[in-house]
Write a structure and sequence with these properties.
Strand order of the largest sheet: 5-4-1-6-8-7-9
CATH superfamily: Spore Coat Polysaccharide Biosynthesis Protein SpsA, Chain A
Distance between the termini: 25 Å
Strand content: 15-25%
Structural class: alpha/beta
Mean pLDDT: 92
């Protein structure tokens, strides 16, 4: 799929990774690649511009060749802060973009048609946002966000103190795209060391 010319991407790696023992979870290796590299590999072909959101030392990520930005609001405000950061970066650096696609960097099996299917849903339904789902669960950090909502999101974060993604998206019409999980959950995410071990087994099964 060629890059969507009006869609920017943000790789969300701004968390504190407490359940992994701290540090930068996205730099953990799976099958000889970092989780971040796996996110780059799947996200870059789906968008026209992309930025990495992290609150860690940017020097650790220079080799990936991506623009790097810290949260534009303080206090480790969670994924919504990363989404706002991506929105504001896109409006300044890629003004032709209309949408922001968000990708969490702790999910190594994300579909290569994620953005295409989210965009199709957003265009075919009367909605404001689109997010992925699998195995009966919504995955709001894998979503398509209109850049026109940037000011509303900034207000929600800075004036209302909203932190949970679902609370904010409930204000808008949301399309949910199910990706299925018959063989494996494409949005399996790594929070703990045992999750990384499970992902290694899943990767071996996929290769086989």
């Amino acid at each position: 799929m060629p890059p969507n010319e009006n869609i920017c991407g943000v790789l969300l790696a701004g968390g504190q990774s407490r359940r992994m023992g701290g540090g930068d979870k996205c730099l953990a290796e799976l099958g000889g690649k970092t989780l971040l590299q796996r996110s780059v590999d799947v996200a870059v072909p789906q968008v026209s511009h992309i930025v990495l959101n992290t609150n860690s030392d940017p020097g650790q990520f220079v080799s990936y060749g991506l623009p790097i930005v810290r949260d534009v609001v303080g206090g480790f405000a969670g994924p919504l802060a990363g989404v706002l950061t991506g929105m504001e970066w896109a409006r300044e650096n890629a003004p032709a973009c209309e949408w922001l696609a968000s990708f969490a960097c702790d999910a190594p099996f994300v579909p290569t048609d994620l953005v295409a299917l989210l965009l199709s849903a957003a265009r075919s339904e009367v909605v404001d946002l689109a997010c992925a789902s699998s195995a009966g669960r919504h995955h709001p950090v894998f979503a398509l966000w209109p850049l026109t909502l940037a000011a509303d999101l900034r207000k929600a974060l800075t004036e209302e103190g909203i932190r949970k993604v679902d609370i904010w998206t409930a204000r808008y019409r949301l399309a949910v795209v199910d990706f299925g999980a018959e063989d494996a959950d494409p949005f399996f995410n790594i929070n703990r060391p045992e999750d990384l071990a499970a992902a290694e087994k899943q990767l071996e099964a996929l290769r086989a």
